[in-house]
């Protein structure tokens, strides 16, 4: 009974709200995850070739880095509005805006990662007869992975937060719930959606950290240099 | 594209610039709120970061605050402010939110800038008999200057961007032109407002870049 009263009393924290609107909350969270994931994946797919292009020399690096930096300067509300004539009120509008934002961080990190690959490693691979494609895929990419993943984590966390602004065109995931609740000053909904947003960002960050650890097992061995190191290497070799 | 032409017409129509909700007043609001917030954020973040950097302690905290900041949506923070008594205090909800988001980049960059100063240079200055304050003012601060200014630039851009989101919760600033356009299905006005907001952000970035070059302590020394 006390639970139902909190909806009437407009408390900040309300169990009854969570129970009665669980479907609405789940839908908004799913939309939020969906928009974020698609944006970051497209961002990565666009940023990677751009970084490879920027690596080819100063003539390419200047325009690529300059353009992505200028895009990052444009405020999100303006970005979504500027894209409006092109896409109309759609999820594609929000996704495009978020992709453009993620490019700055992703291109810089992929580039930094690729440039930090030791030249000896590349020379050795070339000497072993690796072609450019195999060199990139089997030597450079794994060694650039920590920097790439660091960029991916920053881009994902910012994208989760920025997605809320998409509620301007009705495609903001949890942001929609915040916007809906504002006119009626519905405290429980604003607080719940905000907290879910932050939790989503933290969860995505931890997930990507886990992925990074799985993809780069060698960094873990180096990190635990100490008496256990021999045992660890033995275990890895056995596995 | 018809929208671009219509937006140009909107921007060049005098009546759209006058009055309480006109572009001129919104622009003034935007600049005022952003300026006050940036000044407050500098007043809070820079002394703390520079002092901690000089001591070489407490950096993990600065960097972590900055990372957590990315995860918190501006829109959510402003919406939460609007549900508290703060909503009746004019520009303050926006200013407080802006300060909150401008402090982390300022803090991280200033702290990292001071601690990244070459230890050999610091030791040499000590060996020459410089006191703590002298070391700070003549060695650490000039060498950390580029990173401090980078932090200031990213904070300024963030502040201008955040000030436009204030419109989504019904507060002032240039964003109001965009949200008002949305409410009346006036795409030309939405586009015109977006051009103004984006333009202001680019002008802010450009001004600070120019200021950065003008004030750079290393440049002055080279000229002298």
From TrEMBL, chain A:
Alphabetic keyword roster: Membrane, Transmembrane, Transmembrane helix, Transport
Report the locations given in the UniProt record. Answer: Cell membrane; Membrane
Any stretches that span the bilayer, and where are they? 33-53, 60-80, 86-107, 143-170, 190-211
Q: How does it sit in the membrane?
A: Multi-pass membrane protein
Superkingdom as given in the UniProt entry: Bacteria
The UniProt entry's GO biological process terms, in alphabetical order, are:
glycine betaine transport; transmembrane transport
Which residues belong to any copy of the ABC transmembrane type-1 domain?
29-208
Can you supply one Gene Ontology CC term for this chain's record?
plasma membrane
Q: Does the keyword Repeat apply?
A: no
Q: What is its main location?
A: membrane
Similarity remark: Belongs to the binding-protein-dependent transport system permease family.
Among PANTHER family, the record links this protein to:
GLYCINE BETAINE/L-PROLINE TRANSPORT SYSTEM PERMEASE PROTEIN PROW, OSMOPROTECTANT IMPORT PERMEASE PROTEIN OSMW
Q: What is this protein called?
A: ABC transporter permease subunit
Source organism of this protein record: Streptomyces finlayi
Q: What is the lineage of its organism?
A: Bacteria, Bacillati, Actinomycetota, Actinomycetes, Kitasatosporales
TrEMBL record, chain B:
Protein's recorded name: ABC transporter permease subunit
Family assignment from sequence similarity: Belongs to the binding-protein-dependent transport system permease family.
**Keyword terms, alphabetized:** Membrane, Transmembrane, Transmembrane helix, Transport
| InterPro entries to which the protein is assigned, alphabetical | ABC_transp_perm/SBD, MetI-like, MetI-like_sf
Annotated PANTHER family: GLYCINE BETAINE/L-PROLINE TRANSPORT SYSTEM PERMEASE PROTEIN PROW (PTHR30177), POSSIBLE OSMOPROTECTANT (GLYCINE BETAINE_CARNITINE_CHOLINE_L-PROLINE) TRANSPORT INTEGRAL MEMBRANE PROTEIN ABC TRANSPORTER PROZ (PTHR30177:SF33)
- Report the CDD domains cross-referenced here: TM_PBP2
Species the sequence originates in = Streptomyces finlayi
Q: Which GO terms describe its biological process?
A: glycine betaine transport; transmembrane transport
Give me the Gene Ontology terms describing cellular component. Answer: plasma membrane
Q: Where in the cell is it found?
A: Cell membrane; Membrane
**Where is it chiefly localized?**
membrane
ABC transmembrane type-1 domain boundaries: 27-208
| Record's bilayer topology term | Multi-pass membrane protein
Query: Which residue ranges traverse the bilayer?
Result: 31-53, 65-84, 90-112, 155-178, 190-215
């Amino acid at each position: 009974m006390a639970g139902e009263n909190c909806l009437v009393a407009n408390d900040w924290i309300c169990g009854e709200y969570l129970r009665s609107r669980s479907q609405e909350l789940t839908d908004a969270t799913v939309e939020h995850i969906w928009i974020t994931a698609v944006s970051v994946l497209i961002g990565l797919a666009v940023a990677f070739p751009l970084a490879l292009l920027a690596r080819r020399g100063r003539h390419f690096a200047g325009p690529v880095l300059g353009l992505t930096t200028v895009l990052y300067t444009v405020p999100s509300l303006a970005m979504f509005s500027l894209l409006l004539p092109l896409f109309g009120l759609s999820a594609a509008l929000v996704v495009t805006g978020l992709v453009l934002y993620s490019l700055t961080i992703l291109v810089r990190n992929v580039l930094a990662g690729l440039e930090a690959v030791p030249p000896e490693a590349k020379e050795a691979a070339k000497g072993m007869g690796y072609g450019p494609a195999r060199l990139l895929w089997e030597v450079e990419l794994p060694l650039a992975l920590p920097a790439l993943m660091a960029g991916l984590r920053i881009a994902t966390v910012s994208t989760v937060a920025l997605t809320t602004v998409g509620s301007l065109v009705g495609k903001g995931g949890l942001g929609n719930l915040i916007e809906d609740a504002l006119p009626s000053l519905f405290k429980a909904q604003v607080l719940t959606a905000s907290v879910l947003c932050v939790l989503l960002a933290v969860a995505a960050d931890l997930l990507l950290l886990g992925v990074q650890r799985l993809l780069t097992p060698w960094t873990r061995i180096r990190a635990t240099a100490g008496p256990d190191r021999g045992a660890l290497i033995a275990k890895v070799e056995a596995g | 594209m018809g929208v671009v032409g219509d937006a140009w017409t909107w921007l060049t129509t005098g009546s759209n610039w006058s009055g309480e909700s006109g572009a001129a007043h919104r622009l003034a609001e935007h600049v005022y709120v952003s300026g006050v917030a940036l000044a407050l954020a500098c007043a809070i973040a820079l002394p703390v970061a520079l002092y901690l950097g000089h001591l070489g302690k407490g950096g993990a905290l600065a960097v972590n605050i900055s990372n957590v900041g990315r995860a918190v949506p501006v829109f959510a923070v402003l919406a939460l402010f609007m549900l508290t008594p703060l909503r009746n205090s004019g520009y303050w909800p926006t200013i407080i939110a802006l300060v909150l988001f401008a402090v982390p980049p300022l803090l991280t960059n200033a702290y990292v800038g001071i601690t990244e100063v070459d230890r050999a240079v610091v030791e040499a200055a000590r060996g020459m008999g410089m006191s703590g304050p002298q070391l700070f003012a003549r060695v650490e601060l000039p060498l950390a200057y580029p990173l401090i200014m980078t932090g200031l630039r990213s904070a300024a851009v963030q502040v201008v961007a955040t000030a436009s989101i204030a419109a989504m919760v019904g507060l002032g600033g240039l964003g109001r032109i965009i949200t008002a356009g949305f409410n009346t299905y006036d795409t030309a006005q939405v586009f015109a407002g977006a051009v103004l907001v984006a333009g202001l952000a680019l002008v802010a970035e450009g001004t600070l870049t120019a200021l950065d070059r003008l004030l750079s302590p290393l440049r002055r020394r080279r000229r002298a």
